Amino acid sequence: MNIYLGVDTGGTFTDFVLISGNHFSTHKVLSTPHAPEQAILTGIKDLKLTSLSNDDNLYIVHGSTVATNAVLEGKGVKTVFITNHGFKDMLTIGRQARKELYNLQPANPKQPVESEYCIETGGRISAKGKVLEPLTSDDIQTLIQKVMLLKPEAVAINTLFSYLDDRFEKQIEKSLLSTPENNFFISRSSKILPEYKEYERGMTTWLNAYVGPLVKGYINRLQQGVQHASISVMQSAGKTITAEHAGEQAVHMLLSGPAGGLAAAHYLGQLTGQTRMLTFDMGGTSTDVALIEKEIELTNESSIAGYPVAVPMVDMHTIGAGGGSIAYIDEGCLLQVGPQSAGANPGPACYGQGGQHATVTDANLVLGRLLPTEFLGGGMALDVEAAERVITQLAEKLNLNCEQTAEGIIKIANEHMVSALRVMSVQRGIDPRGLTLTSFGGAGGLHVCALADALQMNTAMVPVYSGVLSALGMLVAPKGRELSQTLNCLLTEVNSERKIIDEAINNLIQQGTCALVEESVDQKDIIVVASLDCRYQGQSYTLNVHYDSSSVDSIPLAQQQFSQRHQQRYGHGLDLPIELVNVRVSLKARQNPVELEKNKSQQQGDAYQQVVMQGEDIPVYHREQIGCDQVIPGPALVTETTATTYIDRQWQCRKDSFGNLLLTKPV
Q: Which 8-state DSSP code applies to residue 191?
């Protein structure tokens, strides 16, 4: 029998979704940030998966925070950066963009790579693809000597215009691999990101080398702990890759966990007919906000810890607002919440692990929205007195009572999340009132109604397994690749020579297909989607549009799409030629998605207890016991093993046949 385990490693909890035949089960354990694989191995042991029969096959797909944490904490490996003569300061100089426009004495940002670890060499290509400076044997020997002297753990190679001709990068890589004491990780820009913009390409290549050995080491330790299992990893674009290849593509794992949540939300949206969703994933440390309009939106303009990352990632806005976000009094005697988090250790005060700071989770507990005996299905008791104590300490400074302060903490946290939701909707010219607010993560259901009210949205959804939805997403996401190539030409000029675009796309398709076939994907089961990055001539930023090579009007259609997207995003169009910058190809495997069992039982579930909230008795329901299409008016609480949903006044909830909670507010 095939057994599937989805794992999401978060900042506070590590979540599990286990599918064995027709049986679904969920689990949570506290994360171990110093060694993430330990929490995973603990969960596997709890789920009794350490010893299986010979007839059982265990498949593990997980989202990892190893690469993300290494970048955020500046704890990557010693890395040498190799580039052309005169460009060793490329990563330090950057784009000269000022983060603080009115600060006359801004602090100097930390150098990504110290000068002594930046090595210059020959092998320079021009913008037209011609050789300006050859790479001689003397250059190679000098380069190898310098690298060996520095004794790095990783090497990043980024020469100018290598996306046009990568012969010199390959020559450098081959020479380094042939050295007797080669035990370092090598990252080559023409393999990681064959696109223009030497700074972004160089930074992405360096980041891949900076965290690559850590990711490979982590995966090796995990594989040793579960030698009987097949392991895959979620990529930042919402597709999975086998563990054997994941280490070489470490930079593609920087949004590994959040991408899983979007993959599951997209899957459930297709099942329920919700094609336009504004999602927010509220965990213990942060909240991730994204927009789904039929498909998951991707971007190649993300940044991590201030470093640009130009590989495709889910288009997401992240803020430091989660259940563990710490509330405090600032210098102006005002109440603030986040972005600092209590994390997994010690966690919120109510966890009883020594936490001394009030958090959003403590506030929800004090307000009666969390039941102390129901947390994690009763597997973890919450300390109400500890929560009241830390919030009272803030209340005394604010001349408020404990409950009023808790309400203030919730309102401030909600405002932070509303601002993030507006970034992904209103600021992009999209009216949120036409979207379905979809909440998940362990804390999301407690805030969904308030956030919908603030955005004047009348429909919301709390998906089945919402508390561990990212872990479910690991299992419904397909294997896939996101590939690109820079062309840089006017789209009008290419109209008569479509073969330039088609040849580039076909080369990428062949490359991606070979990679997926190596992962046991049948070629006939591969779905291919091509697209173009376009801009008006003279602009710096691009918009991505679909490209159908089978249509005789593919170029005019792409131009029309671009004009429409530009009008929607920026509110205007320009009478300028449209420039094609990059061609992109997205490949994914058709796979039988996880079959969620329908439950059409019409038996009405009754409230199993009452809780007092603001002096009013509020009914509490078990999510599993609510009947299909049963309507529950607010205010009410719906509990489950991994999350709690608060249905606010004037809202009502209906459970569909898949187990999703559909929330509506009558107009």
A: H
